[in-house]
Amino acid sequence: MRNREFAGTPVGAVGLGCMGMSWAYGESERDDEASIALIREALDLGVTFLDTAQPYGDGHNESLVGRALAGRRDEAVVATKTGLVVESMATRRIVRNGRPEHVRASAEDSLRRLGTDVIDLYYLHRVDPEVPLADTWGAMAELVEAGKVRRLGLSEVSVGQAAEAHAIHPVAAIQSELSLWTRDAMGAPGGLAGTLPGDSVSPGRGPGDVVGWCAANGVAFVPFSPLGRGFLTGTVTSADFESTDLRVGNPRFQEDALKANLRIVEVVKAVAERHGATPAQVAIAWTLAQGDHVIPIPGTKKRRYLHDNAGAADLELTEADLADLDELPAAVGGRY
Fold it and tell me: Is residue 89 part of a domain?
């Protein structure tokens, strides 16, 4: 696989989001041993940028990644997060907590679950509006000084928030949703930074051109959900999900919206046919085409999709392809 650079370290151009191995999508299919084998196979393929977080299964996902990396820790760049707490696994209620004492305690918990002495990339999962960003970010910077964290990142922030944090301690990466049907982080209007599933979201001014800000400041941009929560693969044609699936309540996956959004997939399929590629590869390759600083992290727990996603690193989209994809209509329905 081709590499991209993260903070001076070569990593696979396509990373791996590990969340779905523990919760949010098809939980009845959860298989820890198969997921551990998949993470190890990902390393063999050169997929070395791994993403997890404490809320993903209330610690389960971090422990899973830690088990998978036993004996192979030096082969991976591991990112995890602070700032969100699972209040209820039953209802999936997640709350923000950016207090410095929580930052310090959650870092220790993550280190223990991951079975490592240092976290490569520690994100603030969401900004806590009740705590000054400077206080949260300052506590995270202290973890770098203590040698427990190598680099710091932000998730789902505005350009203003990114600049504020960067002035205190360098931001190494920003993770936000970016895909062919979610372009808020490129400055598209209509989205709000920092939202979570279950938030009340109304149309408003977006976060600004976060992707461009990252390019200008030497910061990696890490798109999550580059496959539109599976929709852009062309395999989701109905809203028939199991009750625990995150997409059950997602506006874009309600039956009428889903049917309307299939027009997006048709264009993606047409571009894929030109290259003998899959729609998933086209969707991921589009994110890669947004700049050399972009490292997407598609998630999967299935081996065939892992290989499919990794293959996107070698797909070169033409100017005509990009023009067709850039002209896609906006998705019907909010992202949360």
Answer: yes
Which conformational region is residue 334 in: left (phi greater than 0), alpha (psi within -120 to 50 degrees), or beta?
Answer: beta
Interior angle at CA 282, CA 277 and CA 284, nearest 5:
125
117 falls within a domain: yes
Runs of H (alpha helix) within 180-318: 210-216, 255-275, 279-288, 303-311
All residues at 6 or more sequence positions from 81 whose CB lies less than 8 Å from its CB, including other chains = 52, 53, 54, 55, 122, 123, 124, 125, 155
The answer to whether residue 276 sits within a structural domain is: no
Q: How many residues does the chain have?
A: 336
Number of CB atoms found within 10 A of residue 330's CB: 13
Q: Which domain CATH number covers 46?
A: 3.20.20.100
Residue 166 included in any domain: yes
Residue 320's φ and ψ, nearest 5 degrees, are -65, -40
Helices (H), the chain: 32-45, 60-68, 100-114, 133-145, 159-168, 210-216, 255-275, 279-288, 303-311, 319-326
CA distance linking residue 254 with residue 143, whole number of Å: 42
Q: What is the pLDDT of residues 250-298, one digit of tens each?
A: 999 999 999 999 999 999 999 999 999 999 999 999 999 999 999 999 9
Q: Write down the catalytic residue from 25, 56, 305, 336.
A: 56
56 is catalytic: yes
Q: How many distinct structural domains can be found in the chain? A: 1
Checking 31-40 for CB contacts under 8 A at 24+ apart, the result is: 31/301, 32/64, 32/67, 34/301, 35/64, 35/68, 35/301, 36/64, 36/67, 36/68, 38/300, 38/301, 38/302, 38/303, 38/306, 39/64, 39/65, 39/68, 39/69, 40/68, 40/72
Distance of alpha carbon 255 from alpha carbon 259, whole angstroms: 6
Range of the domain at 154: 3-227+287-317
Decide if pLDDT at 300 tops 70.
Answer: yes
Q: Give 266's contacts (C-beta < 8 A, 6+ positions apart).
A: none
Q: Is the pTM of this model over 0.90?
A: yes
